[in-house]
Each structure stands twice: as structure tokens, then as C-alpha cells.
Amino acid sequence: MIRYKGSVLILVLWVVIVLSLLSIAISFSASGDVKLARYESENIKAMYLAKAGVVKLIADIKKDPNNYDSLNEDWNFENELRFGGGVVTYSAADEERRLNLNGHSQNLKEGLSRLGLEDGISQRIWDYKVMKGEEGFEFMEELFLIDGMTKEIYSTIEPYVTIYIGTDSKVNINTVSENVLKAVVEDDMVLDKILEYRRGYDGVDGSDDDRIFTDENFSLTFTDFGITPENIINYQNLFVVKSNFFRIHAKVSFSEDKGIAKTAICITDRNGEVCYWREE
User: Fold this and answer.
1) Which of 66, 214, 261, 268 could hold 253 in an S-S bridge, CB 3.0 to 4.6 Å?
2) In angstroms, what is the C-alpha Rg of the chain?
3) Which domain holds residue 38?
């Protein structure tokens, strides 16, 4: 009888242990489900916050009354929007400060070479573009279809080129980077004068004393550079002073959990028509 009672007790203990383990497993599973649901909820909130930052900046760009775009305007600096426990920081970069791979300029090959590419691969990029015709490059990674293209070469030119601004080859003289300006302007003297004029007295882009090229002062300013009227027309064919396309970055984080974040990159025209969207 005692042995029987002992066996029953052992059996009961085993049942209790199994039920306890099962309870713990269910608890862990439920906890995981709650965490997963919370993560998904925060991820959705982050996506909509990122979109809110993009929409807000598009609205600000639409309201810009200037007849030019320059690096000392508000869209070029980080702004912040707080909502629902989340923080979205957003800013834009002028997409027309980049060299357009889909542009009609016959000097694209030379421009790519001045960006640091070997002549052979610059020629193959141009040949591929010509082969594609009006369709042109449809996505940046299409460059990897070109013979000789490597990750290293792609990384070299990716920050300086675009395919999203139609077929216009002109770059914005007020926002173009020095590297792209070197790809567009062959005369080093003119290049230096453009940068010196644009940066103002402090020699820094994006500050309050920047001097802005406009349609009204373009010819006069280039005359002051010592450029002849005939050559001024050539430079007018290289540049615009106001842009229509912008690359917007929006990054979202949550104050209660800094590990949850989302980044959205959007290329849009001034009217808000999206040409490219990527979330990370």
C-alpha cells in the first residue's frame, strides 16, 4: 500500500512538473507573440510617420516662393516632427545636383570619366544608354548589366548620378557638388569662380551669406567672371537655377524604444509625384 501511495505521489509530481513546464512554454510563447505584435504595431506607426515627414517636406517645397533653389534653404536642413511617441527627422537633397544618366547630353561619357571612371566603362555606359533609347535606365542597379561594372565602381559614382529627372542634362548651379561640377565644367578657372561666388565671404556652402545664381543675374555674373557672351550661352545650356526634383530622407525612432526605427528615401518632383521610394 505504501509503495502504491509512493508511486501515485511520484506520478502526481511528474504531472505537476509537466504542467508547469507546459505553462512556462505557453507563457513564453504568449510573451513572444505580444512582443511580435508590439513590434509590428510600431513598425506600421514608423512607416506612417516616415510618410508624414515626406508629405510635410513636399508641402514646404511647394510653398517655396523663390525663383531659385540653393543650399541655404530650409529643405536642405534637418527638420523634426513628433507624433504618437515617435520622432521623425527629415530633410531633402536637390536631385538635380546630380549628373543625369538619362540626359541627352553628348558629353555624358566625358563627364563620367571626369567623375573618376575609366574611359572604357564610361563608353559602355553611354553605349548602353543609347541602346535603351528613350526608355533609358529604369533603375540604378541596371548599371550592373554593363560589362566591367563592379560594386566598387558603382559606389564611386552612385552619390553623383541620377536616373529619375527625365531627360534634361542640366544641373542646378546653386546646389551641384564640387565633384559633379568638375564633371560638367572643363575650365578649372570657371569652376573655381562658380564655387567662390556661390559660397560667399565665409567660403562655406549652405550658410546665410551664400550668393545665389538666378535667371536675372546669371549673364551679368558670368560676364564678371570674364566669360564672353557667346560662351555664356554655352554655360546657360549646362545649368538651371531652380530644381523640380528632390530626394527626401525621413528617419523615425521612438523615444521609449530607440531600437525601433525606420528610414524612408523618396525621390519626388515639386508637385509630389513619387519617382522612387525605399524603406529600410
Assistant:
1) 261
2) 28
3) 30-98+165-280
pLDDT of residue 195: 97
Tens digit of each residue's pLDDT (9 = 90 or more) over 195-233? 999 999 999 999 999 999 999 999 999 999 999 999 999
Task: Tell me if 9 is assigned to some domain.
Answer: no
In a domain, 104, yes or no: no
Domain assignment present for residue 269? The answer is yes
Distances (CA, A) of 91 to 68, 127, 156, 174: 18, 35, 23, 17
Q: Which three cell numbers stand for residue 275?
A: 519617382
Residue 158 contacts residue 140 (beta carbons within 8 Å): yes
pLDDT digits 0-9 by tens, 144-185: 999 999 999 999 999 999 999 999 999 999 999 999 999 999
Phi, psi dihedrals of residue 70, rounded to the nearest 5°:
-145, 170
Q: For residue 176, what is the enclosing H or E element?
A: none
Please say whether the beta carbons of 109 and 120 come within 8 A.
no
- 13 has pLDDT over 60: no
H-helix or E-strand spanning residue 73:
none
pLDDT averaged over every residue in the chain: 87
Distance of CA 236 to the CA centre of its chain: 27
Indicate the number of domains in the chain.
1
Global pTM reads 0.83
Alpha helices in the chain (DSSP H): 2-62, 108-114, 119-132, 151-157, 178-184, 188-199, 218-224, 229-236
